[in-house]
């Protein structure tokens, strides 16, 4: 509990989303207000969204949640980009756009996320930085209500939400990752909570998942995912491995048997950051975002605790592989090195290459018991971002989420710069190869995969897969005939 101080009023002339008019604390007097200072790149900010949804639904008559979006990256200061994040993460409370950090400073916020609890009389009575504070906040709410229940403003509050203006009925919704293989193309249709398999030309072969958020093993028609992301494929067993990110699970799809099963995680988010491991189905995971198979191992970017993990598929055990759990960019041995929300992974068989999104850097991790971690390009700093081609530490990327190895080069999805870049591993040179055409631009591309003469790109906020001919740099949008959003039309 902090000293009871008057909450600064919210500015009248700032942009608002998820509401048709600005809100004021004065008008909300008599309600409990939760201000959530967040930025949509931040994994910790995403982790508390279910907590906020729980509170605003359970106590909807007395609580108003207001998100204050104080964006870290330049790209996150644009109103339309924030609107897309609201749609992607199904946020249902009003959002104040605080791109100049004025409200952040008035409330003396120091970290993303920070929650401010404002009582019925308009005083700040609680401040919580980071995640994992749900029970403390709920106890505070219960305590407030037990003392002064007759002062509660129980007027129902309804807001005009962004999803009422822009429904996700496109065939794909915010696809996060794509994987091209000799047996076909796999797409993590993240916004529709399912996985699509098609031919490399776009003929739909399988739709895996009901299209509703959930967690359920079983056949392709009944299984459920929650915002699946990265995938890797075993062509020998015809098995697809998936990072089921928001369920904090790893899943395996047996294509011949058409069965989905959980192979790692409990479904509960881990709050442990120090190195540990054990039986795969007994260890809690923390937002696994991408994965790659090397031999009998899966290597996983565990975004929520800033580490790289390894799962042994023969022993069904899983453990932290590299990273202390601290958020940052530290090279060196596996115990002392640090990552910052690693979100993409690829390999040449000897080294893992990581899109380290919050440091806007590309990292290398040796596949060796006594291996080392290095920074290939990017500033290596949490706030060292931009859009600069160059070599090594002079390169500036902006929240890169995807990386793909090919022929001693790396293709990079430079997500918040809306570009595809190419890194030469021989000298660390990074250059832009694609940013758009005469009538189109990428919009936060997040995943890519190479096969044959083509690079397949998840153009995430455009809700499409683009196929790039690497010889001519011709780009087309792939069409998936018969593929529909859940409930819109029947899928093949």
Automatic annotation (TrEMBL):
Pfam families in alphabetical order: Thioredoxin_8
Species of the source: Sphaerospermopsis reniformis
Domain Thioredoxin: 1-146
Gene3D superfamilies reported in the protein's UniProt record: Glutaredoxin, TolB, C-terminal domain
Protein name: NHL repeat protein
Family matches, as SUPFAM superfamilies: NHL repeat, Thioredoxin-like
